[in-house]
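hey
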């Protein structure tokens, strides 16, 4: 296999994997809201269920949004780092001012569908190339 098809294959596989990353609401990633406790308490419990390093997107009560790397919750404050800025400083967000949290996760059904399509198309190309010769050699 020449270098160009190998590079195309690697790029395509990378695209399929990374395109399947989606932001999902925190209640779908951790657990549903408990109607017996306040919104802030629910959010604090859900944030505690995340892993250090998870990528999250916050929407604040003032409608500003922030893409972050989750670290931990201390005394009703979310501590995280900005995704796009290379710094070791934590940014702090009071939980009561957070409107919505989304967590980046792999979308498994989409990944499986795209992978199946990729494998099917690759198989057809390989079989037709072996049977009829390369369409690029003429």
């Amino acid at each position: 296999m020449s270098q160009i098809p190998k590079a195309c294959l690697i790029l395509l596989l990378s695209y399929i994997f990374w395109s399947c990353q989606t932001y999902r609401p925190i209640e779908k990633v951790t657990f549903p809201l408990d109607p017996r406790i306040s919104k802030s308490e629910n959010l604090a419990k859900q944030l505690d269920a995340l892993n250090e390093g998870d990528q999250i997107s916050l929407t604040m009560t003032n409608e500003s949004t922030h893409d972050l790397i989750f670290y931990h919750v201390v005394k009703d404050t979310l501590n995280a780092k900005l995704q796009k800025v290379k710094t070791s400083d934590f940014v702090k967000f009071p939980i009561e001012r957070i409107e919505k949290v989304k967590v980046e996760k792999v979308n498994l059904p989409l990944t499986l569908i795209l992978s199946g399509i990729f494998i099917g198309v690759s198989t057809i190309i390989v079989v037709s190339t072996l049977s009829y010769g390369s369409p690029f050699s003429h």
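The beta strands are 21-25, 55-60, 65-74, 77-82, 91-94, 98-106. DSSP finds four helices and six strands in the chain.
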